[in-house]
Write a structure and sequence with these properties.
Length: 746
C-alpha cells in the first residue's frame, strides 16, 4: 500500500532528524488515496507522527491541529491527548493541558506502566508550571488595584502633602492611578499658579476640585500676565479658602472690585502678601476688616507696605506674624503685639528708625516660641517682650547694645526651653551673654555672627579646658589638663551646633578646647578595668559633664583660625565649614596637605577632563558611606571629602592651578618632599629597646601599604619631622614638641 511506504520513509527520516523530509512523507501518506480507502484505524498514527514533526520544528499551531485530528479519529487512544497536553503546556494554557493529561492517563492500559509514568510526570510538570505562573502573577500584580478608591485617595493625599507638584507624578504612574487621582476632588484642593499656562491651570483645577479649592498660591510673574486677573478667579470658592499666598497682587482690591467682599475670606487661616521687589504699594483698606471677620491666625508681609495701626485695630487672633520690611507707623507695633497675646512665632525684619519710650508697658507673650528681630530697634523691642516658652531667639543688626535686653531676658524669663540663640551684627558684653547661657540647659544651637569682639570669650567659657598644643607640635610626654569647675561643666551641656562666622576675635584655641571637651570618652577595651577610679582625668571630666558632642561647627571668615587645625576639626566634627580664599587655601595646603595631583591620582600635565573624571573617582573611593571598611583602627584614613573638593576646585581652574603649581615648586625646592599626611606622635606606638630607660626609644605607625613609619628619639632631638615608610615611597610629617629639661626635679 502506497501510504505505508510513505509512512515508513517518514519514520526513517524522523529518526535521522531529517524533519523536512519526514514532514513531506507524512503529508503524502495522509493524502494518499489508498490511505483514504484502506487506512482504517491506522490513520490516526500518521497524524500523530506528523504532529511530532511539527512540534520538533516549532510549529505548535499545526501540531495542535494534527493532535486534534488524532483525538477525532481515535478517541479511545491516549496518543492524541498526551500530545495535546504537551502542546498546551508550551502555550501556557495550563487548565487545558491538565485536562488533556488526565484524559490521556485514563486511556493508558494498566499494563503499560512506563507510559503511565511518563504521563504522570507530564501532569506534575503542568502542576508546577501552574504554581509558578500563579507566583509570577501575584508578584507582578498591582496591589493598589485591590484597595478601595477612598483609601487610595487618602494615600495620594499623604504623598502630595508636602509638595502638591507630586500630583502630576501620580497621574503618570499608570491608568488606574490616573483614574483615581483624576476623579478625587480632594487632591485638587491646592492651586499653585505659576508663569507657565496659569489660565489653563486655573480652569482645570476649578473643574477637577468641584469647588473645593482650599489653598491659592499666586507665584512671581503671574500678575504680569496680559490677561491678569483672569475672569475664572471669580468662580473660586473665596468663602471657603483657608490659605492665600499672593505675589504682587492685591487680593482685597480684586474682591472689592468684583463685589465679593461681604463673604470672601471668611474662612481664611493664613495670608501672605508679597512683592517681587521692594514696593511702597499698600494693601487695600478693606483687607484687615475682611481678616478680622475670618479670625486669621497667620499673617505675613514681605516687601509689601502695611499699617501697624490698622493691624492692631482689626486683628486679635494671630499666632504667627512675619514682617519683612515696608511697615508704616511703627508706633503701632507694640499695640499690635499686645492685641495678639497668643503669638507663637514672631519675625520682624524692618529698617524703621524708631525707639519706644522708656515708660512703654511690657508685652506679655506667654506662648511665644520663635522670635526673630532684625533692625536697629531690635534691642529696644526685645527689652519689652516677656515670655516663658521661648525656644528660638535671633537678634540681628541692633544699633544699641543687647546687654539690657539679655539681662531682662535672663531675669524675667524662663529659659529652660531655649534651644537656639543667634546674635548677628549686634554689640553685646561677653559676661552678660555667658550669664545668660548658664541658664539655658537645653540650648543646642549657638550663632555668634559678625561680632567685632566678645565671641572668643564666650567660646572660651563654653570650653572650660586649657589650650592644647597644635597637632604638629605635640610633646611625647602627656600632661593632664586641670579639671574644670562645676559651673563650667554645666554650661550648655546639650550644645551640638556652633557658628561663629565672621567674628573677628575668634581664635583656634577656644574652638579646639570646645570640641575636645565635648568628645565622647573612648570605649574601653574588653579587658580594661572599668572601675571609675581607673578613668583618666579627661574621661572623668567628660563623664561629669555629660555633654553632647559638637556635631556642627562653622567659622567662615575667621582669619585667625590656624589652617593647620582644619583636618583635625573635620575629623572630630561631622559638619565643619570654613571658606578660604584661593591664595589662603594654597598657603594652608603648602606644608601640611598632600599633593593634589597625587590625591586625585593624575599626572601634573593632566587635562581638565581627566581631572574631572579623577575627582569623581576619588569621591567614590573615599566617601565614608561607600567605604566604611577604609576607616579601621589599624589603617586610619586621613583623606577627607572636603580635601578632595579643595583639590578639584584649585586644579580645575587654570589661574588657581598655575598659582598652586608655582607655590609647589618653590616649596619643594626649599623643604624637600611633600608629606602625604600629618600624623601626631600620640598616634604612634612607642617601642623601647631593652630594659634600660636611657636606651633609645622608637615610635612606629602603620602605613596604608602595610609597612611602618619609624622615628627615634635621636631623630626628634635633631628636629626631624619627615619620616618615610619602610615599604613604599610615602612620607608623613610627624607632629611633636620636645620638652626642656629645666623643670623642677623635686
Amino acid at each position: 500500500m502506497a501510504w505505508k511506504a510513505s509512512f515508513g520513509h517518514g519514520v526513517s527520516s524522523f529518526k535521522a532528524s531529517r524533519l523536512d523530509e519526514a514532514l513531506s512523507h507524512f503529508t503524502q501518506a495522509s493524502i494518499s488515496h489508498a490511505l483514504k480507502e484502506q487506512g482504517g484505524d491506522q490513520q490516526h498514527l500518521i497524524y500523530d507522527s506528523r504532529a511530532a514533526v511539527y512540534e520538533k520544528l516549532g510549529m505548535p499551531k499545526e501540531a495542535l491541529r494534527d493532535a486534534k485530528a488524532v483525538i477525532t479519529l481515535a478517541q479511545d487512544q491516549w496518543q492524541g491527548y498526551a500530545r495535546a497536553a504537551r502542546l498546551f503546556l508550551l502555550a501556557r494554557k495550563f487548565d487545558a493541558a491538565l485536562k488533556m493529561a488526565n484524559m490521556a492517563l485514563d486511556r493508558v492500559k494498566p499494563a503499560n506502566a512506563a507510559r503511565r509514568v511518563d504521563i504522570t510526570n507530564l501532569r506534575d510538570d503542568i502542576h508546577e508550571a501552574q504554581r509558578a505562573e500563579g507566583r509570577r502573577k501575584r508578584a507582578s500584580q498591582n496591589q493598589f488595584e485591590k484597595l478601595p478608591v477612598e483609601l487610595l485617595g487618602e494615600v495620594f493625599r499623604l504623598v502630595i502633602w508636602s509638595d502638591v507638584a507630586e500630583l502630576i507624578g501620580l497621574l503618570r504612574v499608570c491608568r488606574h492611578w490616573r483614574n483615581v487621582a483624576w476623579h478625587t476632588p480632594s487632591l485638587w484642593e491646592t492651586l499653585v499658579l505659576t508663569s507657565k499656562s496659569p489660565a489653563r491651570k486655573l480652569s482645570l483645577w476649578i473643574k477637577q476640585s468641584k469647588g473645593r479649592i482650599r489653598e491659592l498660591h499666586v507665584k512671581a510673574g503671574v500678575a504680569s500676565h496680559i490677561d491678569w486677573p483672569f475672569q475664572e478667579l471669580k468662580d473660586l470658592p473665596w468663602d471657603k479658602l483657608r490659605v492665600c499666598n499672593a505675589v504682587s497682587w492685591d487680593v482685597a482690591g480684586f474682591l472689592e472690585k468684583h463685589g465679593l467682599v461681604p463673604h470672601a475670606l471668611s474662612a481664611i487661616e493664613a495670608l501672605e502678601m508679597q512683592e517681587e521687589q521692594w514696593s511702597r504699594r499698600r494693601a487695600s483698606p478693606s483687607l484687615f476688616p475682611l481678616l478680622q471677620t475670618a479670625g486669621v491666625r497667620s499673617l505675613s508681609f514681605i516687601r509689601s507696605e502695611f499699617s501697624w495701626t490698622e493691624l492692631a485695630t482689626h486683628l486679635t487672633t494671630l499666632t504667627t506674624l512675619h514682617i519683612f520690611g515696608c511697615s508704616k507707623d511703627p508706633a503701632g507695633l507694640v499695640p499690635t503685639l499686645m492685641a495678639n497675646p497668643g503669638l507663637e512665632s514672631l519675625i520682624i525684619q524692618d529698617s524703621i528708625l524708631f525707639t519706644w519710650p522708656v515708660d512703654t508697658a511690657p508685652v506679655l507673650l506667654s506662648h511665644l516660641k520663635h522670635l526673630e528681630l532684625q533692625g536697629s530697634w531690635a534691642s529696644n523691642l526685645l527689652e519689652l517682650i516677656t515670655t516663658s516658652a521661648l525656644e528660638t531667639c535671633k537678634i540681628k543688626g541692633s544699633r544699641g547694645s543687647l546687654d539690657t535686653a539679655l539681662t531682662v531676658l535672663n531675669v524675667a524669663h524662663n529659659l529652660s526651653n531655649l534651644t537656639h540663640i543667634a546674635v548677628d551684627s549686634s554689640p553685646v558684653t561677653p559676661a552678660i551673654l555667658i550669664r545668660l547661657l548658664k541658664h539655658t540647659p537645653a540650648l543646642t544651637r549657638l550663632e555668634l555672627l559678625f561680632l567685632s569682639k566678645g565671641a572668643n570669650a564666650v567660646i572660651e567659657a563654653l570650653a572650660g579646658t586649657p589650650m592644647p598644643p597644635p597637632p604638629s607640635k605635640r610633646t611625647p610626654t602627656k600632661t593632664p589638663a586641670p579639671a574644670s569647675t562645676d559651673e563650667e561643666r554645666i554650661l550648655c551641656p546639650a550644645l551640638t551646633h556652633v557658628n561663629v562666622s565672621h567674628s573677628a576675635d575668634i581664635r583656634t584655641g577656644p574652638l579646639v578646647r570646645l570640641v575636645r571637651a565635648r568628645l565622647p570618652p573612648p570605649t574601653p577595651a574588653p579587658h580594661a578595668d572599668t572601675d571609675p577610679a581607673a578613668m583618666t582625668v579627661d574621661d572623668s571630666e567628660r563623664e561629669a559633664r555629660k555633654c553632647a558632642r559638637i556635631l556642627g561647627l562653622t567659622f567662615d571668615g575667621c582669619e585667625q583660625i590656624d589652617a593647620e587645625w582644619l583636618p583635625w576639626f573635620r575629623k572630630q566634627v561631622p559638619l565643619t565649614f570654613r571658606k578660604l580664599s584661593p591664595l589662603n587655601l594654597i598657603l594652608a595646603a603648602s606644608e601640611f596637605q598632600p599633593d593634589f595631583y597625587e590625591l586625585l591620582s593624575v599626572p601634573k600635565d593632566a587635562s581638565a577632563a581627566e581631572i574631572k573624571i579623577a575627582y569623581h573617582r576619588a569621591l567614590l573611593r573615599f566617601h565614608p558611606d561607600k567605604n566604611n571598611h577604609l576607616n579601621t583602627p589599624s589603617k586610619p584614613e586621613s583623606i577627607s571629602i572636603s580635601l578632595i573638593k579643595d583639590a578639584y576646585s584649585i586644579l580645575s581652574e587654570p589661574s588657581r592651578r598655575k598659582q598652586y603649581d608655582s607655590s609647589t615648586r618653590q616649596r619643594i625646592a626649599a623643604v624637600g618632599p611633600r608629606p602625604a599626611q600629618v600624623v601626631s606622635l600620640e598616634e604612634f606606638e612607642e617601642v623601647t629597646h631593652g630594659s634600660d630607660p636611657e636606651e633609645i626609644s622608637t615610635w612606629q605607625y602603620e602605613c596604608r601599604c602595610g609597612g611602618n613609619y619609624r622615628i627615634e628619639s635621636s631623630d626628634m632631638e635633631k628636629g626631624h619631622h619627615l619620616v618615610g615608610c619602610s615599604s613604599c615611597s610615602e612620607v608623613v610629617w610627624v607632629g611633636y614638641e620636645l620638652q626642656s629639661d629645666t623643670g623642677d626635679d623635686g
